[in-house]
Amino acid sequence: MTNRRNFLTGAGAITTAVAAAAVSRVAMAALPEPVFQSKPDTMAPLVPETGRPYNPVVTLNGWTLPWRMNNGVKEFHLVAEPVVREMSPGFKAHLWGYNGQSPGPTIEVVEGDRVRIFVTNKLPEHTSVHWHGQRLPNGMDGVSGLTQKAIPVGKTFVYEFLAKRPGTFMYHPHADEMTQMAMGMMGFWITHPKARHPLIDEVNRDFVFLLNAYDIDPGAYTPKIMTMLDFNLWSWNSRVFPGIDPLVVRKNDKVRIRIGNLTMTNHPMHLHGHEFLVTGTDGGPTPKSSRQYEVTTDVAVGQMRQLEFLADEEGDWAFHCHKSHHTMNAMGHDVPTLIGVDHRKVVKDITNVIPDYMVMGERGMADMAEMDMPLPDNTARMMSGEGPFGSVEMGGMFSVVKVRKDQKAGDYKDPGWYKHPAGEVAYEWTGALPNPARFAAEGGQTMKAQNMPAKEVEVQVRKPVMGGAGAMGGMKH
Ligand SMILES: [Cu+2]
């Protein structure tokens, strides 16, 4: 049971999931052998071989936990343990999670299933699992101290309940939560409807991911757990752009995206090129009368949201959190705004003291994306991600919904960048530019300035306290 076995192998964005190994009769009497996953790839949906059929979800940069049926009960085995998570290529974090990964594997069951979950604690401290959003007996709710004893180090506890209502749920510890959630302990839970449900549509693609946030100093591996606000890594399933896989769909697919928020702030999730409906919340499917088309919906702390749309526009459509600081990686927050400030004199003064001092951001921050600055080892670049037209200048909570007419049903392989039809890309104007019609300067119509100083305001630029790339790397946003 303690052997770490990779049941799921392969390379690329999508690899093949393998169902749990056949279980011998002797083993049936014991706990199910836990299944582990060490790769951060998006695994192909796990098609159920036992129990009621359903359309499985795709966990972005994650996987679904195989189960076994034991006398009509669906049995899962979660192992809470320290893990190493690759958050983006070249950047690994030392987190806590379940079964080899943070977040833990997605659990998928069907409305009416009797579910038994074995939880083994291999953390250095006690834990528990709260089944966020479920209807269940009070003693199965997982609040240590209140509804159960915390699971001591090295022990295994059993949770058992009926999956009563269909919907989108989460699981996470309810013991030393501040530490354990800051370290990445969380996972998704889907209860599929047992039959056609009037408020739950069949979809062609069903993606799930959790929003999470970490505070990891550049060059460090372990999150700081005392952080309340100053997180510097905003992630989906503990991955940051460009480490987040694209959401690949076929043109005219009906697409569902389920998002859970276990960070300490809200995230307005924004989709380009399509309108979506919020078809479900923590409380289950939304009444049809409450649905309205949106392109952004806020996912508040502790909430789940289900978005649905018809992917009828081909292209590479950005999908991201609309808080611009959440689409950046470690760096940048405390950097003063330097746009429009000429630094040449300041730099000359500073380089007398700090020879390798470097100025950033006098033309905006875009230079940063392309600049190959020396960063401490094991640091996610603040913003990067090469697109077909240059740097995407993004990090953090950002990915791309790739809509293709020739994508095969059930194929999640990255089709590469969209090939735009001729004449459908913004282009440079090379003709003559008419003289701009200035307003105030040429006596045009404009509002009178009130209470404004008559002469130009002098800008006082504070001398930067820190210099050099390493010091800038220590800043947060
Ligand atoms: Cu956000």
From TrEMBL:
Location (main, coarse): periplasm
Give the UniProt subcellular location, in the record's own words.
Periplasm
- Alphabetical UniProt keywords: Copper, Metal-binding, Oxidoreductase, Plasmid, Signal
Instruction: Name the SUPFAM superfamilies on file.
Output: Cupredoxins (SSF49503)
Q: Where on the tree of life does the source sit, at the highest rank? A: Bacteria
Q: Where are the transmembrane segments?
A: none
| The keyword Phosphoprotein belongs to this UniProt entry's keyword annotation | no
Signal sequence bounds: 1-29
One Gene Ontology term, aspect cellular component: periplasmic space
Start and end residues of each Plastocyanin-like domain: 90-195, 221-335
Q: What Gene3D superfamilies does its record include?
A: Cupredoxins - blue copper proteins
| PROSITE patterns, alphabetized | MULTICOPPER_OXIDASE2, TAT
The record's listing under Pfam families reads: Cu-oxidase_2, Cu-oxidase_3
Q: What InterPro entries is this protein classified in?
A: Cu-oxidase-like_N (IPR011707), Cu-oxidase_C (IPR011706), Cu-oxidase_fam (IPR045087), Cu_oxidase_Cu_BS (IPR002355), Cupredoxin (IPR008972), TAT_signal (IPR006311)
Instruction: Supply one GO molecular-function term.
Output: copper ion binding
In its keyword annotation, does this UniProt entry include Signal? Answer: yes
PANTHER family the record matches: FI03373P-RELATED, MULTI-COPPER OXIDASE
Q: What is this protein called?
A: Multicopper oxidase, type 3
